[in-house]
Write a structure and sequence with these properties.
This protein is an alpha+beta fold and 89 residues long. Helix content is 48%, strand content 13%. Strands 1-2-3 form a three-stranded antiparallel β-sheet, with no helix packed on it. The N and C termini lie far apart (44 Å).
Length: 89
Amino acid sequence: MGVVHLCSYGVNYCRLDYDVLIFGIVIQDFNENTAARAKMVKRVAKKPTMADLNEVRAVSGAMRTAEEEELQRRKDEIVKSLRRPKDTR
């Protein structure tokens, strides 16, 4: 996960996790060159850098962590409510 790849059309993609895929970007400082990539580099006006992509990865990771913590908190509340005696529910 998190590895940047180059597709046959010359654009980059990166899977952040099993649910999130970033596709269709042309990374300015990507080290692999093909004829398709050279064509895309000429066609695309804005080309993010690997540093830009790393910032996106960091923000995405922080958001996933916050979501996971919130989900765990909700699960804990449900379990706690189910463990209460029936007469106090």
